[in-house]
Amino acid sequence: MPAGDTSVRLPRDYDQDVAWVIWAVAAVLLAIGELLTPGLFFLGPVALAAVAAAIVAAVGASVVVQLIVFILGSIASLAVLRPIARSHLQMPALVRTGTAALEGGRGVVLQRVDANGGRVRIGGEEWSARSYMEDQVIEPGTRVEVVKIQGATALVME
């Protein structure tokens, strides 16, 4: 070490010893981010790619190889896992509960339904209703489909 040089010299392998820790920390932070942003399922697959990069770094691969593994792992995991996760976000009608279970169901108009109100029978219960399309008027006895539930009012259409 030259005179006057007060810098600390690190062992040659220090960068590689620390690289896997950096990738592991990145994976944990991405996983936490995934937990805090429900429904997106974007950061989780990228966290998996960071784990793969950490493994490659622990084996002693160069930074370039680590980055390639991370990028390709991100693309692959997003391409494979995200569509699967998104398909599970759509809850099937048989699993839905509460007012969500009524949407898409059928009912019968009891009192004339228009944009201002009316009454329908849905699944044995009587509900206040409005027509889903403002200019639509539905007469008693007509079978309707429940498009949406707003509060205690069913929005229906023929």
In short:
With 158 residues, the protein is of the alpha+beta class. Helices cover 45% and strands 22% of the residues. It has 2 domains: 14-89, no CATH class; 99-157, Beta Barrel (OB fold (Dihydrolipoamide Acetyltransferase, E2P)), CATH 2.40.50.
Q: How is the quaternary structure best described?
A: single chain
Tally of individual helices? 4
SS elements, strand count: 5
Taken from the alpha-carbon principal axes, the silhouette is rod-shaped
Tell me what you see in this structure.
The chain has 158 residues and is α+β, with helices and mostly antiparallel strands. The chain has two domains: 14-89, no CATH class; 99-157, OB fold (Dihydrolipoamide Acetyltransferase, E2P). It has helices at residues 14-36, 43-59, 63-89, 99-102; strands spanning 106-114, 117-122, 125-131, 143-150, 153-157. Strands 1-2-3-5-4 form a five-stranded mixed β-barrel. Strand 1 and strand 2 form a beta hairpin. Helix 2 packs antiparallel against helix 3 (63-89). The termini are far apart. The mean pLDDT is 82.
Write the layout of secondary structure elements.
Layout: H1 14-36, H2 43-59, H3 63-89, H4 99-102, E1 106-114, E2 117-122, E3 125-131, E4 143-150, E5 153-157
Parallel strand pairs: 3-5
Antiparallel strand pairs: 1-2, 1-4, 2-3, 4-5
Helix pairs in contact: 1-2, 2-3
Q: Which descriptors would you attach to this protein?
A:
158 residues, alpha+beta, OB fold (Dihydrolipoamide Acetyltransferase, E2P), 2 domains, 4 helices
